[in-house]
Amino acid sequence: MATLISSRLASVIVLATCFILARGQLSTPCFYDKVCPKALATIKKVVEEAIAQEPRMGASLLRLHFHDCFVNGCDGSILLDDTPTFIGEKNAAPNMNSARGFEVVDRIKAAVNEECHGNIVSCADILAVAARDSVVALGGPSYQVQLGRRDARTASQLAANQSIPAPTLDFSGLISNFQSHGLSLQDLVVLSGAHTLGFARCTNFRSRLYNETRTLDFYQANSLKAICPISGGDDNLAPLDGSPTRFDTVYYNWLIQKKGLLHSDQQLFKGDGSGADGLVKFYSSYPSAFSNDFGVSMLKMGSMKPLTGSQGEIRMNCRMVNYY
Ligand code: HEM
Ligand SMILES: *[C@@H]1O[C@H](CO)[C@@H](O)[C@H](O)[C@H]1NC(C)=O
Ligand SMILES: *[C@@H]1O[C@H](CO)[C@@H](O)[C@H](O)[C@H]1NC(C)=O
After folding, report:
1. Closest residue to atom 4 of ligand 2, CA basis
2. What count of Cα atoms within 13 Å lies in the side-chain half-sphere of residue 22?
3. Phi/psi of residue 317, nearest 5 degrees
4. Tens-digit pLDDT profile for residues 196-240
5. CATH number of the domain at 185-290, please?
6. Cβ-Cβ contacts under 8 Å for 276 (sequence gap 6 or more)
7. Model confidence over 157-172: pLDDT tens digits?
8. CATH architecture of the domain with residue range 10-165
9. What pTM, to 2 d.p., does this model score?
10. What are the sequence ranges of the domains in the chain?
11. Which residue's alpha carbon is at the smallest distance from atom 6 of ligand 1?
């Protein structure tokens, strides 16, 4: 009896969130419930398998959603291979030799196409859900993902070059980049907390080791120099925080200790009380606030300029548009 009541209660809560969460143009997390009830469970299963095989994959999938959303909205454009008619985003400066996880997205798409007996779930929605499932699989907070994004029929290398923030940016550049996407200072600090997961290549933090000694912890710099020599080893990896496969607040602790790996990371904490110093201290001290706010900012990022209704298409294969 108790189980019956609690399962009834649970479904009432789920139903309630289905309606309450409708916001902007996207639909509720229940978007696929009628047409393909197991769609989300199928995505989750493939994500979990991929992360069990390689924990870093969670970081890579989270970043794919970010790099998708920051280029003309969350429309799956990052997944398109180059074609004779356009150069895609995969080889844009921020993605080349860096963005990864495309094979996992292919596996997810194949699995949902099979489960749904057809082409029902968009590639853009897959990225949004896979990002959330990755965060959860690595110990982070869960949050409801709004759905109903449709897939772009084109991609833009130029837009990817211009819209995704570079790790060389200063605080003011980061702020204006995020503002151009409708995101706030708080979103910047919270979403940068994604760097609690994953790795960066030497080429992206070398100048920090040899040119920014004032803002980088001495011992940290020395140990990183072993991974990242002054020349060569461009693709050698270092973790973005001390626990790159656990979603926690060590990233913020590191910023306070002047151990931020990227120039852009350390720009969020300068130690003089200016800029984002207060927010970094706050999230470092209150992990549960970070957990909560991360979900809120991910919802905001995930609802940037979606294609909905009859715009775009549902791609059959995430790498290519359905027909030319
Ligand atoms: C605030 C501006 C940001 C800058 C300048 C930035 C830059 C970078 C760079 C340079 C890397 C390393 C790439 C490489 O060396 O191959 C990286 C990795 C990563 N970024 Fe960001 N990022 C930013 C914000 C974000 C946001 C908002 C998210 C997600 C919500 C995110 C998620 C990640 C993750 C998870 C990785 C590790 C990926 C992996 O290990 O495969 N980043 N970022
Ligand atoms: C994007 O950046 C890459 C690397 O810097 C460059 O080779 C490419 O030409 C740029 N693409 C466009 C369309 O500007
Ligand atoms: C350090 O900065 C100088 C001057 O801006 C630049 O020429 C040099 O390439 C930088 N060194 C590294 C390792 O990034």
Report:
1. 93
2. 7
3. -125, 125
4. 999 999 999 999 999 998 999 999 999 999 999 999 999 999 999
5. 1.10.420.10
6. 171, 185, 188, 189, 268, 269
7. 999 999 999 999 999 9
8. Orthogonal Bundle (1.10)
9. 0.94
10. 10-165, 185-290
11. 167
